[in-house]
Amino acid sequence: MSRIRRTGKLRYGDKELAMQQRLRALDTFRGIAIVFMIFVNDGAGGYWWLEHATWNGLAAGDLVFPAFLWIMGVCIPLSVKSAFAKGIPRWKIVLQILRLQDGLRKSRYRLVLATGPRCAGSAAAKPRSIVMFILGVSLNTIYGSNMLGELRVMGVLQRLAVAYLVAAGFYALTAPKYYTPPRGACGQALKDLMSCIWCWVLAAVLVAAHTAITFIVHHPDCPAGYLGPGGKHDEWAAPECGGGAAGYLDRLLLGDAHLYQNSDARHVYGGPPTDPEGLLGCLTSAVQALLGVQAGATVLLQRAHRARVSRWLACALALALAGALLAGFSRDHGVLPINKNLWSMSFVLVTSACSLTLLSICYTFTDAWRLWGGAPFRAPGLNAIALYVGHSLCAHLFPFHWRVPLMRTHAVRLAEAVWGTALWVIIAHVMAKKKVFITL
After folding, report:
1. Does 285 fall in a domain?
2. Given the residues 52, 218, 219, 233, the one annotated as active site
3. Model pTM greater than 0.90?
4. Are residues 116 and 68 in contact, defined by beta-carbon separation less than 8 angstroms?
5. Per-residue pLDDT tens digits for 164-180
6. What is the mean pLDDT of the chain?
7. Are 211 and 285 in contact (CB under 8 A)?
């Protein structure tokens, strides 16, 4: 630290910095997300407000996936700067992100698989985009067809892989290995923002491209800028235009047979298939990962607990207000309604604000005040991919799931969902105790 004060330069990866990067809050946050995801996928007791919104709007279940995307972005600066400190060149880091080169050091306790990058100082290394994408396509066949002509291309892990490739690859190529904060009080206050200036430029380009495509590109028989699910929505206003530009591009480039066929919106409104993890949403998903990168840069450049939390909460407030303004403070009548299926910018801003708030709470109790060790969520956070893949493979297997003749009440369905979720939490704790960490 004295060397840093003398030179005015922050060398990422110094021993003191590496110690600060081992934040319990990050694993705790990831654990909360994966546990809640399993609970929602298990039915969440049949309560509508715990599941996903049919089209526009925001339910509790809609917060999980963007939370994974965002926390993945938070860990990118910590992982990349750790690689810089080890002398790994930029091009090799990019190859490792793509998984074209194996830079991992394997041991008997470190298997190779992950939903998001584990931060510097944790037990496993970084994820690899190609491997994650292929794993996601494979998991799609659990619920869908394995016929090559009907194989669903996109999905949850595929969206994570694309967003990680864009955010991590760009940050690895543009982040300064040594950062000299600007002089003056203003420069010191904004040093974490200035260190990610190129990420903000990329985010602006992606938002502009997404907005232009959304409101300009359309099927010849559909109105420009349509954002509805098609079918009988809005009194059959555009029955074959489900998803607007996003749905049109998916059907044009991927084909109807390779899209998700059983969305809630299609069951309710009818109309053509729309994939909630489609191609156009990859742009705004990358923006969400870049917002996480900014939060990770705050960890790197702001030492004080109060400085970190205050910046996160201020950013959360700004993002929430911006998202609400885009949505017109309503569900259906804004310029860009909050919509998970389209991954609209209002959805990105509001869910990122929720993630910032949750991370601030976790950080305050686990790392600042040290009143909470993160239990029971930290262990699931250390093995998020194992739990995600495991609960997908065991979706219909006893003892994780069971049925009784009358499963019509919330109480019985809630008990079944809590039971299955609790079993995976126990498995995660057993794996952590045995030092088994499965990451990509």
Report:
1. yes
2. 52
3. no
4. yes
5. 999 999 999 998 887 77
6. 85
7. no
